[in-house]
Fold this sequence. Notes:
Two copies of one chain form a homodimer. By secondary structure, chain A is an alpha/beta fold.
Amino acid sequence: MAGPAVPSHSDIAPLPDDPAAFLATQRSAYDDLVAQGLKFDLTRGKPGPEQLDLSEALLTLPTTHTSGGVDVRNYGGLEGLLGLRELFAELLGVQVAQLVAQGNASLTLMKDVLVDCMLKGPVDGTPWKDQGPIKFLCPVPGYDRHHALLEWLGIEMVPVPMEADGPDVAVVEALVKDDPSIKGMWLVPTYANPSGSVTEADKAARLAAMPTAASDFKILWDNAYGLHHLTDVETKTADIISLAAANGNPDRPIMFASTSKITFAGAGVSFLAASERNVKWYLGHLGMGSIGPDKVNHLRHLEFFKDADGVRAHMRKHAALIKPKFDAVQEVLSTRLGRYPHIATWTEPIGGYFVSLDVLPGTASRVVQLAKEAGVALTPAGASFPYGVDPQDTNIRLAPTFPSLDEVRVAMEAVATCVLLAAAEKLAD
Amino acid sequence: MAGPAVPSHSDIAPLPDDPAAFLATQRSAYDDLVAQGLKFDLTRGKPGPEQLDLSEALLTLPTTHTSGGVDVRNYGGLEGLLGLRELFAELLGVQVAQLVAQGNASLTLMKDVLVDCMLKGPVDGTPWKDQGPIKFLCPVPGYDRHHALLEWLGIEMVPVPMEADGPDVAVVEALVKDDPSIKGMWLVPTYANPSGSVTEADKAARLAAMPTAASDFKILWDNAYGLHHLTDVETKTADIISLAAANGNPDRPIMFASTSKITFAGAGVSFLAASERNVKWYLGHLGMGSIGPDKVNHLRHLEFFKDADGVRAHMRKHAALIKPKFDAVQEVLSTRLGRYPHIATWTEPIGGYFVSLDVLPGTASRVVQLAKEAGVALTPAGASFPYGVDPQDTNIRLAPTFPSLDEVRVAMEAVATCVLLAAAEKLAD
């Protein structure tokens, strides 16, 4: 399915016979690049303005202030507006009673859950802060904000490999079965950040069922891109909540999602889905600092989408806008780097927000530095790894959605030039 | 200034000569009350629907998606929209750099601050979770959600008396000077919940300057009602941030405010104000779970109010709607209970959302129970005290804003009847 693409070109070039000449060629190309005086930013997975425009009608909604007999303007309704929860329960494949709708950022809900586990303990355990050093498994490459949150809480991160069909479950199983200090793992199941990997149902089932030494092991299932298809293939996310329940671990997974990359990145709605017991646990702690989420924004979204098909149709409009940008990334990388599979490989995602580029080991930092000096801001090398350290110094996350199509093309040409120069420097070393 | 009113009636009744006859009279009145089959809720400080209607124009704002060159729809701007911060900095009497605008609940910011202090330590201290048992001072009667948050975190609450002009500062000073485990205090400085007390500048100055054994002592200054005047007297809240800075304790106070009772209770904007060092500390932790607040809602509020005078004019419309309700409370209580100052006294606030009623000691729970059985839901007796325990069982918080004016009248008649019956039962005991 989705996942790292292996370039298959008939004209694969051998490693250069004459590294010095290769270096001179690449340096010359780079000098030309610097002379262009570019200024582009490919660092963050932000929707572009034309994507935000798709939801402009939200600005004059809702048309009423009541929904299901509730005055959405007033306090209350900690679990979120029923109508919106019903709509997204269908899209996320969960029961309405398993779903909570909240404010503008699922990242906030993830922080809440981890803080609650630390201070108060998960629904099936005691406070993690009282248990000495604890650990989390992090599929790599992964999402830098997931890692930052764990580091902030002093939770040790253990990297596990991310493969095209999900994390290396054999490694996960081996780690968790004997070590009670491993309390959980992150996972972006569909169109993972940054690899585009999709965790297949068989791997999800193993994660749901695997014996864990920690009786309160949690899978933080960040389904940020579950609806964000780039092609006609509308990948179905594995149903981790049902799988976990069926395997006697109903409280293991906690799912997160949001409309941040569906409507407005800064003014959307976030979701948490889990067992009813987990939901009750979560709301109990949430209620210490909330008298209910912004239900006006919930109703605004409900009126805008009307139903699940409304969301699906909306997502196809996003795909129409950003697929050409992803195509441009593939096109430029193939044209410029396809002949050098020993120097660069990259993913060809069918959804999500990123392309994951692996350059010659030991050169990713140098590529980012070269690009910066040429006016192209890339996500820092190592950003997708715990503690910001990519042991191979090989991975670079490309985020093509925010710049215009022309900018993506020019920026990717620049990236290719930097990748080749950094490799040439290394090979000539 | 504001604060508990002492009823001064020429016709003060002596304690009843014949408690049995008094009891029979009150029981008869109560039986008539129950026969009416009322159904009212005076429990929470919620704005009424006609107050929410004042802000209905928000539903079709903003008219644009940019402000100060920022696309408010996208990620970013962790500190909140500049224009809105400028507007509320003026109203709250702080510098723009000292002010952060966030989501729909200042209670969330209070929880954040306490969680950050526990897990990571305040800007001037080490994590509170590592310091053994710690304590907070709570002026009583106070806000039940403040107490719940401390109890949730396992922070011991020490009550201190709330007086008409603020907390009993002599008691506070004596407690904090020698006990390093007292890490802070709550304070609702203006039109306190539920007493309506206003902390005067001299008391604020003493709190800002007092020596504390804890070097990281915090005043959580919840200015929830600072703009919520009921009369033409627009009480100025003491400038705790400047006072603390002037006294060498710049990082002691953290101020909270919101538009929850200005625009929409469930869809407003919250604020945190503090020293720039505190703001930087706060944002550093906030950024672990947020890529910026809902700036669309910030712009919506900015467009709606336009400037600080817009907010002031708006607040006068609120006062026009709710002052008659507060007047009705005073009128009914005076008429029915004014002759019995040994049985009941109450505050006559000039702002805020509550009237604090003190009944015959030992009868508050009974009053609430009687009212409930007569169909009138009151805030549970003791709710305004740490751990829900009013040692005198005397205080009842009345919240007259949500019901209609007629309902307030009928409900207060019912309350008066219950107060008298509970007292009669006690006196006949």
